Amino acid sequence: MSYSIKPEEHELRQAKQIVEEAIATCKTVEEKEKDFEISLGWLFPPPEIENPSGASGASGDREFIYLEFNSTVDDWKNDLRPVTAYSYGRSLFAERMENEVQFGWQELLMEAFALQFLDRVYEDTASENLEWSKSELEDAWPQVRESLDEEAVWFEADDPIWSTAYYIGQELLEAHDLNKLPELKRSDVIEAGDRIFG
Q1: Which residues of 117-156 are buried (b: 16+ CB within 10 A; e: fewer)?
Q2: Which of 39, 90, 166, 189 has the fewest C-beta atoms under 10 angstroms from its C-beta?
Q3: What are the beta bridge partners of residue 56?
Q4: pLDDT at 158 over 90
Q5: What is d(CA 98, CA 174) in angstroms, rounded to the nearest whole number?
Q6: Given a cut of 90, is residue 10 above it in pLDDT?
Q7: What is the largest CA-CA distance in the chain?
Q8: For 116, how many CA atoms within 13 A lie in the half-sphere containing its CB?
Q9: How far is CA 116 from each of CA 80, 105, 121, rounded to the nearest angstrom?
Q10: Using alpha carbons only, what angle is made at residue 67 by residues 85 and 56, rounded to the nearest 5 degrees?
């Protein structure tokens, strides 16, 4: 019987170095005040995905970022950098929020912040990967708007809410500094969405 353990030591060393470089770049844009921990693991992309990403990440927490990578995917190193910055942005937002994310509008605002932060760290990375255009989202906005008072749920990059969050973030930055986004209210999010999609 043969077996393998992933990641292998050299892969883990490479991934750690990429994450450390990405965090250093994030800190030049905005530094977190509190200490935080990064968990780095192996990503098993679903077999039904034709062109899987080589990295995935998550954080909605002030003190914890979870990152995964898969070095068998050709572009995994280039995938891991923006995923790290995006996850750092979510953690930074959580650190600056008065309360924890509970509602859809707060999750959307966190996404808006993280995506705009990502574009500042790695220029135009988020905007170049949007699945939906503004015009395509006009039909989806009433349903998204209605869901903003519901309990917050994690959504995927191809979900229209992800692209909606990006455009709402852009709109909010017309009147607010990025660092002020965690202080905004439900009404700010809805008014921005109505201006864009309504």
Answers
A1: bbbbbbeebbeeebebeeeebeebbeebbebbeeebeebe
A2: 39
A3: 68
A4: no
A5: 23
A6: yes
A7: 62
A8: 27
A9: 17, 16, 9
A10: 80
